[in-house]
Design a protein that fits this description.
- The chain has 72 residues and is mainly beta.
- The protein has one domain: RNA polymerase II/Efflux pump adaptor protein, barrel-sandwich hybrid domain (OB fold (Dihydrolipoamide Acetyltransferase, E2P)).
- Helices cover 0% and strands 46% of the residues.
- It contains no helices and 7 strands.
- It has strands spanning 10-16, 23-24, 29-34, 39-43, 48-53, 60-62, 68-71.
- The strands form 2 sheets. It has a 4-stranded antiparallel β-sheet, with no helix packed on it. A 3-stranded antiparallel β-sheet has the order 2-5-7, with no helix packed on it.
- A hairpin with a 4-residue loop joins strand 3 (29-34) and strand 4 (39-43).
- It is globular.
Length: 72
């Protein structure tokens, strides 16, 4: 879960915009994370199918934490 601001250490997952089984393209917004500073859109790092949602809405996730998976 990459953030552009290195002072942010974690965020709360507020919304999934894709569901397991949905096709995604690299750069598609798949989720939204709220930090203490803003709501951040999380983009798919690769194209494929969203194969897993590892964190539910409301979960607090560290900046380098995994929130889901994409199968190519």
């Amino acid at each position: 879960m990459p953030f552009g601001d290195l002072t942010v250490s974690e965020g709360t997952l507020v919304k999934w915009l894709k569901a397991v089984g949905d096709a995604v393209k690299e750069g598609d917004v798949v989720a939204e994370i709220e930090t203490d500073k803003a709501v951040v859109e999380i983009e798919a790092p690769a194209s494929g199918t969203l194969s897993a949602i590892d964190q539910p809405v409301g979960a607090v996730v560290p900046m380098v934490g995994r929130i889901g998976g994409i199968r190519k």
